[in-house]
Amino acid sequence: MDIKSTVREKYAAIALQPKSVNEQSCCGSGPQGTYTIMSESYEELKGYNPDADLGLGCGLPTEFAHIQEGDTVVDLGSGAGNDCFIARAEAGASGKVIGIDFTPEMIRKARENADRLGFNNVEFREGDIDDMPLADATVDVVVSNCVLNLVPDKSKVISEIMRVLRPGGHFSISDVVLVGDLPSQIRESAEMYAGCVAGAIQMEDYLEFIRQTGFENITVQKQKPIMIPDDILLEYLTKEQIRDFVASGTGIFSITVFAEKAGAKARPAKPKLELAVLGKGEACCGPDCC
Which CATH superfamily is domain 3-260 in? Predict the structure, then answer.
């Protein structure tokens, strides 16, 4: 399947449908079931705007991103602008927020939201997150919510994050990862790929990409299990296959990961929670974070 075209088509449709429909599936891939599987509530966060919240996320990365007044912040896969507007509330009038999305319909929706809110320091650029329309070393903070799993070459995206961050900059990214193997019927499903599940990779591989790129102080800020309801699984598996899948112990998790680019920039950018910093070979956070 052509992953890029499939994802663009799905998310173009999502941009035009109500949040209530998006929340009924894995990351808003379609009207399967009646469950909010992954998304978390932004309603308590400063800067939240309901019109920009399509219910597509799997975490709250902006809450953990330690954005400071005057920062330049980039949101990868910015959708209708939800995380960008939260980031603006932290970066203030002296900061700058840039959203990147490769779906024209999402870009139009985000720009309409920004215009209606009167924000002149939030902009949205159409482009691929594995080839960002940004200059080197121009960004303080990168955030992303349930987007890297949609990109086949995740290591390239992480390299791009390293390129655009200034020395001492950092990222906070929420994404879906695996411990164990998904059944082939799910891995090969375009619908489940666009739904943020089939494109997920092993947690250790995900963290290793970050290590190999050269990021430091890699920390899992939050981790939670994702349970796919049987009525969605039945679209792909028989009841017997579902029992085997559950018995296999395969875990699907939403994680929020923090990491820093080496450099001399002085800033107290430390995770809010007292978590263990990951070393090579470790795949999870401290005992109190999950």
Answer: Vaccinia Virus protein VP39 (3.40.50.150)
pLDDT digits (tens, 9 = 90+) for 9-53: 777 777 776 655 554 444 444 443 323 456 677 888 888 888 888
pLDDT in tens, 95-122: 999 999 999 999 999 999 999 999 999 9
Instruction: Collapse the DSSP code of 39 into the 3-class scheme (helix H, G, I; strand E, B; otherwise coil) and give the result.
Output: coil
Q: How far is CA 289 from the centre of its chain?
A: 19
Q: What residues contact 120, with CB distance under 8 A and at least 6 apart?
A: none
CB 191 within 8 A of CB 29: yes
Residue 249 burial class via C-beta count within 10 angstroms: exposed 0-12, middle 13-18, buried 19 and up: exposed
- For 228-257, what is the mean pLDDT? 90
Per the rule left: phi > 0, alpha: psi between -120 and 50, beta: everything else, 282 is beta
Question: Residue 13 phi/psi, 5° resolution?
Answer: -65, -40
Which comes out higher in pLDDT, residue 16 or 258? 258
Residue 211, CB-side half-sphere exposure with 13 Å CA sphere = 15
The number of angstroms, rounded, from the C-alpha of 187 to the middle of its chain's C-alpha atoms is: 19
